[in-house]
Design brief:
This protein is α+β, with helices and mostly antiparallel strands. Helices cover 13% and strands 20% of the residues.
């Protein structure tokens, strides 16, 4: 089904929208109800992420094959049963700074960065989200990096408390659904990876590194490192940078191959400690094969990297 058909068939939904001009207000809870349709953009406070309302729908999740030890299947039909709101952009440095200022949250020192000498990533103890290992992610409108899954969970818990609404991380199914945006090709723009520079901040000729074990795309996307959010065209759902720029944490505990359930868009969880959380979307420093919506990363909850960030999801009443 085309996106336009999805939009037509999706009914109007109710979204609680907070009209706040100051985070320090005594009770930053929703006070105004507004009727907003699929595709509408809403922002609940001055430092809250802008959200886009995404329709319900069905899609085929996953792909056949994958890298050794990292299966992308089995392919299965997934139903997203209801509309939900998704961060229009990845959470920015300024938005995360507002959270830290309000809560005094401390994720501790250390962030993984690329070591040209070792041809691999290594933990660099002197770096953190304020001063990431890439030494370039400092602008207010660039995505925050060097944040763990635990940091991302703390951020969405704060947003939930601040607004009185349920903010969370996307499930793997929701993430792939919005990344594909009704496309069925390898990439949202088609099957040709060399067209990627028109649509995303990827590992390209401008960021090519001879110490990497894999080649860069031959195109040029005009950013040699991380880019400010929203520099490339939005996808069919109106979301920016879902592919490329920085990896995005999701809620799911990683399971490969996919378990038979769930197929209703909810997260896969386990009893007890989850060793690895799923991370999606690729980055400015990732192989083009890993920029595909079907590719699945897996990292510990405590992992912090200068190419790892996140975006938020908000449930609708």
């Amino acid at each position: 089904m085309q996106v336009s058909q999805l939009l037509v068939r999706t009914t109007l939904i109710m979204l609680s929208a907070t009209l706040l001009s100051n985070l320090a207000s005594a009770d930053p809870r929703p006070t105004v109800m507004a009727k907003l349709s699929v595709g509408s953009i809403v922002q609940e406070c001055a430092d809250c992420p802008a959200l886009v309302i995404v329709p319900s729908g069905q899609f085929t999740m996953g792909a056949d094959g994958g890298e050794a030890g990292r299966p992308e299947g089995p392919r299965r039909a997934v139903t997203i049963p209801r509309a939900f709101a998704v961060g229009r952009f990845e959470v920015t440095h300024a938005q995360y700074a507002a959270f830290v200022e309000a809560t005094q949250h401390d994720s501790g020192p250390g962030c993984a960065g690329w070591s040209a000498a070792k041809h691999n990533f290594e933990m660099l103890p002197d770096f953190n989200w304020r001063n990431p290992a890439a030494a370039v992610v400092t602008a207010a409108d660039e995505p925050v990096v060097c944040v763990s899954w635990l940091d991302a969970k703390a951020y969405v818990a704060w947003l939930s408390e601040l607004t009185g609404q349920r903010y969370r991380l996307a499930t793997e199914a929701e993430w792939e659904y919005v990344a594909r945006a009704a496309s069925t090709t390898d990439f949202p723009w088609g099957d040709d990876e060399e067209q990627g520079c028109q649509y995303a901040n990827v590992y390209d000729a401008s960021s090519a590194d001879p110490t990497k074990k894999f080649p860069a795309a031959k195109c040029t996307d005009k950013h040699s490192t991380v880019a400010p959010v929203g520099q490339y065209p939005p996808n069919a759902f109106g979301l920016y940078d879902v592919i490329g720029n920085v990896w995005e944490w999701t809620q799911d505990c990683y399971q490969g191959p996919y378990a038979a359930e769930p197929v209703d868009g909810s997260a896969y969880e386990v009893q007890g400690q989850c060793e690895l959380r799923a991370v999606r979307g690729g980055s400015w420093r990732s192989h083009m094969f890993r920029q595909r919506p079907a590719w699945r990363g897996r990292d510990p909850e405590t992992r912090k990297s200068d190419i790892f960030g996140f975006r938020v999801v908000r449930d609708l009443n």
